[in-house]
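LAB NOTEBOOK - FOLDING QUEUE
OPERATOR: T.R.
BATCH SIZE: 2
PURPOSE: Compare the predicted structure-token outputs for two unrelated chains run back to back under identical settings.
PRIORITY: normal
REVIEWER: second-year student, initials M.K.

ITEM 1
FIELD SEQUENCE / FIELD STRUCTURE:
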Amino acid sequence: MIEQAATPKVSFVVTNYNGRRNLERCMPFILAAAEYRGLADEVIVVDDCSTDGSVEFLAEAFPTVRVIALTERSSFLGAANEGFRQARNRYVALLSNDMAPERDFLGRLLGHFERSEVFVAHASLVSPSGRVESERSVGRFLFGNLKMLNTASRDRGLARLLLSSERVSRYSLFSGACGVFDRDKFLALGGLDPIYLPFYWEDADLCYRAWRRGWKTVSEPGCRVVHFHEELGTIRNNFDREYVRTVERRNRFLFLWSNIDSPAHLAAHAAYLAVNLAFSVFCGRFSFYRSFFGSVRRLPQVLERRRRRAEARLSDREIFAQVLGERPADSLTLAPTAAMAARRSVA
């Protein structure tokens, strides 16, 4: 068993931006998890040009932590990429600064890497009160758009209809930052793609590229990480809500345009765009246009990524069936009618 190895072989990488308060609360838990059973011998905090004294605080309060202070703002994905490049171990535990892992976090996740095809194993996120926020994330291509759903919400809303037990894949989308990665595979994929700056969908894109190569992304339900999202979340506390929504939608488009080859799925998405672009004019929701034209401006980057994409072992159809749990009949009902789209809020 990997978790019984005598030599530590894990590096922690923690991303931070103006998170001194987060670090003060969460770093003791991270260090305790790193020291447990001697599985980790390196804790790295990559600071993304903080102005709140985070770097000075770490030097004083946690001198054993290795701090990499970036000189230019790079967001979560840039900070994570730099951490992976500089980590010295084969396995890297990636955490955001608002996450406090359980002490046996590493031992529970490392066992999955006995299978050589595993790319990432991730934990469940729970709130400080113990409510499960995120468990297993899966995707559903619905009405020309990709929706990310979580099994923690399987009894509510759309998830209740689409996440029946027989359709939940054994795969799980790594979403956010609470998992252990095979560093070699991460670097082979080129890490998180900067086309998604400043945030959102970079993790889904990374998983999709891993799936194309036949690598697995798995969850460990018994492993939990406390997430202080409401109180300490970096995006929530540093960016306007409407801006966040616009960026999230734009990056969802970029994800689809960068990764999907299936003619049926692309046709359904084109219909979704046409209907929603027209509908947005009548309901005055111009944020959809901001998202759309924001993604169009990055279209040259999308085309470049498609040209240099590595050879795939799995097709879109295989990924949607095997990984995301889509039934063959689902692909026949993807394109929305105008009436159906008009009844839905613009996503």
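ITEM 2
FIELD SEQUENCE / FIELD STRUCTURE:
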Amino acid sequence: MDYTSFTCSARDGLKLAARKYGWQNRDPHPVVCLAGITRNASDFHELALYLSSKKGGKRRVIAIDYRGRGQSEYDSNSDNYNLSTEADDTLDILTALGLGEVNMIGSSRGGLICMLLGSMRPGIFKSVILNDIGPVIDATALVRIWRTYDVNRLPVSIEEAASLRERIAGAASPAFSKEEWLKEANRLYRKENSKLVLQFDKKLLDSLRSINLDERLPDMWPEFASLIRFPMMAIRAENSDMLSEDTFGAMQAFNPDMQTLIAKGQNHAPILSVGGLEKDIAAFLKKQG
């Protein structure tokens, strides 16, 4: 298999899942991948295959499903779908695997979890990559996310799902080919009893429905600051509605040593195996040893 599945218990007993790639490699500082609010470990599949190969540095990679996503158990208490609990889920998986310092990649909400972990447990970081996320969040992007999924009818086939995603996001993601839209559909849906279902608990959307666009969301500059002692890369989607150009520039001014990268032809959040991004990420990680 391309990866091995891993499961363990969270501190409250909930089953958590992850994918392990290249675990036969001897990389002392594995790469840990954290996905967005409605996303899962499959977002990193192609990136993980590359990084675990000889060409990508023969690294060990773990892609995590925190609660309510992918293969992890759904939580009966939707109040537990919060950054603090998901940061604990991440730590519980790292502890179960016996991992020390790691290189962490956080896409969207995963990047917010990286920032929170920087203030909670900075000792776990070797380096960090933030994918299309920063300390200031545009609330309109969060509203767009819940509206995308707040529908009554699910697609009946992967092909229909791919077509739907392309109609919704195609204009902002010209880098995606037809094949990539099919991959995107498979990342978002799976079959259960011959029907497509979303690969996340729809209760995750509850917190997004209550967003007031007239109020500014709290920023996370102190948490971002906790990470600047580590080698850092920040990636911005060329057509992002989550990470503004102003915030991206402010992050660079705050941390002049931060390496930056633009995911051309993509919107939020970029898939890190499209457009050669995996090679840039491998080169960044190689510098860290």
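REVIEWER COMMENT (ITEM 2): The first strand starts at residue 4 and ends at 9.
FOLLOW-UP: none requested
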